[in-house]
Amino acid sequence: MSDPDLTDAVAAIRRGDLVIYPTETVYGLGANALDSEAVERVFDAKGRSRDKPISMALPELSVAADYTRMTDREWRFCERFLPGPVTVLVERTDRIPDSLVSGADRVGLRVPDHEVARELARRTGPITATSANRSGEGSARRTDEIAPDLVERATVVDCGETPGGESSVVDVVAGRIVRRGALADEIESWLTAPSDA
Fold this sequence. Notes:
The longest helix is centred in the first third of the chain and has 11 residues, at 36-46. This protein has 197 residues and is an alpha/beta fold. The chain has one domain (7-162): DHBP synthase. The protein has helices spanning 7-15, 36-46, 72-81, 98-101, 115-124, 148-152, 184-192, and strands spanning 18-21, 28-30, 55-57, 68-69, 86-92, 106-110, 127-131, 154-156, 168-171, 176-179. Strands 1, 2, 3, 4, 5, 6, 7, 8, 9 and 10 form a ten-stranded mixed sheet that branches.
């Protein structure tokens, strides 16, 4: 499939609206991660509890320093596993709105291994990284699997079927995998290796 035209999706995010976009796992629901009102639209569209934080996607790891504070070990971990299907919990700066992280001091950081997702974030800045589904329902690998009411509320970037699966969520400081997903065994080996792999 040829690269999609992202003009409408970029415009939607800049307006504070929602976008459904592909990742290396499933379709995601994107909005401007730095805009509290846009983040609220994501919670509303998903029917998601406000006490469940939402991760953010960046186009590349190099821009993470603009929004997060990482230890040397966290940087080494991110350099090893990102881009990829991994969400890393790191300390946020005050550029990240409380609404995204439910008031917590850490944010889930993603650098998707999917050029369309990364290009979208490259052109708009950080976007929300959460699956494009109603809370509690299954994730979608194709746009026709997404609930119609969600599709109606968003600009859809359809790139065909995605590989599926879910990202592993990792707290490097605590040395633990919060949610086992892709690459979990490799991550576990890295976390427990005395040399930090």
